[in-house]
Protein: Bifunctional NAD(P)H-hydrate repair enzyme
Amino acid sequence: MKLLSAAQTRALDQATIQAQHITSADLMERAAGAVTNWLLDELLLDYDTEIQVCCGPGNNGGDGLVVARQLHRAGYPVQLWLLPAARHSTDFTHQKQQLPTGLAVRQIAPDNLPTITAGTVVVDALFGTGLSRPLEGLAAALVRHLNDSDATVVAVDIPSGLYADATQPADSAVMRATYTLSFELPKLAFLLPQNASFVGDWRLLPIGLDAQAIQNMACAIHFVTADELRGRLPKRPKFSHKGTFGHALLLAGSKGKIGAAVLATQACLRAGVGLMTTRVPAVGYDILQISAPEAMCLADPATDFLTELPDLTPYAAVGIGPGLGQHDDTRAVLRQLLETAQVPLIIDADALNLLGAQPELQQLLPPDSLLTPHPKEFERLVGEPARDDYHRLDQLRNFAGRTGCYCVLKGAYTALAAPDGALYFNSTGNPGMASGGSGDVLTGLLLALRAHQGISPLAAALVGLHAHGRAADLALPHTGHAGLLASDIVRFIGPALEELMDE
Ligand SMILES: NC(=O)C1=CN([C@@H]2O[C@H](COP(=O)(O)OP(=O)(O)OC[C@H]3O[C@@H](n4cnc5c(N)ncnc54)[C@H](OP(=O)(O)O)[C@@H]3O)[C@@H](O)[C@H]2O)[C@@H](O)CC1
Ligand SMILES: [K+]
Structure:
């Protein structure tokens, strides 16, 4: 799915109206109808629920007017509140004229704000994608009043005061919605940690926006759904053998962190690699052989950390990082790997920290390598803290462009920047994954997909990120959030990948 800018969203509105030969009022009726149906079917409003609909002066307010009309006609006790404004949109004015006479209109004023009691549902239709400046005055006072209440707030399209694709100034008033109902497509703002407390639970309501117009819109930011990935993973042919799926090498582990090597190895095996060799320091040899008998193990001459790079000739892809430690000799291994590798690399964890500590090593990164930092590792990699989440995304795209690599930024919606500047957000996963070892599992999974000759670098990264989160989602009913371990994710990699395979 494309993550359109606010300006593009408005253009899409117009394109839909033209393509479908409808009026903007028709489209508004559809949008508001979807909100009303959601309130009735999902929020399960009952006839006693007090519903306060707060409308601003533009089309977001127009949506609110239609929701109020529809709920009133259906017999629900709606109170309608309007924010005074010098100008109103044409559609707002039109919808106001359509209000039934029995529906009282209340003007919001400093001494006349909606009274919120236990169980009140507020429909926030103050401002949508037309927000042009931070909220102030009465609008800000209303938002703060509602934020201080216990109301269940349902934001229409986007929480009022929140920019769809930029950071609003610190301390500006933004509605803290319980639910945000966005039309057809999500907004970039929903995916960023800095906005989590405003956006709440977000849902997409289809309203028949023109598919062709969406397809024609130039947009380099995507929210990747399972539907878009289905078929990107080739089916295993009947006459395949272990050579078909590549031989992967993993360089991982140090004393006390052999578990990271084990988890990454197991994940790589479960992701369907043909052959797997893991290089660990000697201390890890027995551990790995016992816990991952399907893998071959190459012990380093040193006991506690890696000091030598093995011959790379047999391997189709190389992963480095999980549990590696940052010893000088290990850094020399990383340098030698970067200088000599002719195959795709997956770089994670301490290998990223080593790249951050010695930025000149970054110039050696072979093109199309895949790096998988979490935000702290990414900060070390670029050597500069981000001002906010949007700035961090800029840094991510710049890094991918500068190095010619694919770079991940792990989070609730893990982002992936491609060398061409495109940005992809993953849609799977759950908070149970925020515990030690899940990153190691991702490295192993991605390593298997990069070793596979039939998958492009981009598809490998997207399928890997999706399957990692999906495996955790499949494990969740068996473990609960707190009980979800990295090894549980490993168990469900197979089923998660199966869902994406060619028919
Ligand atoms: N796109 C779609 O597919 C569909 C879109 N639909 C709906 O349309 C919504 C977008 O409507 P919209 O463009 O009229 O903008 P909206 O947010 O209502 O407000 C603009 C007004 O607010 C004003 N204003 C702005 N900032 C302000 C501030 N800080 N403080 C005070 N005033 C401020 C601004 O004034 P101005 O900036 O001109 O001074 C202008 O008067 C969209 O979110 C969705 O709900 C659906 O109906 C159908 C499908
Ligand atoms: K809103």
Q: What stands out?
A: The two ends are 22 Å apart (CA to CA). The first strand starts at residue 51 and ends at 55.
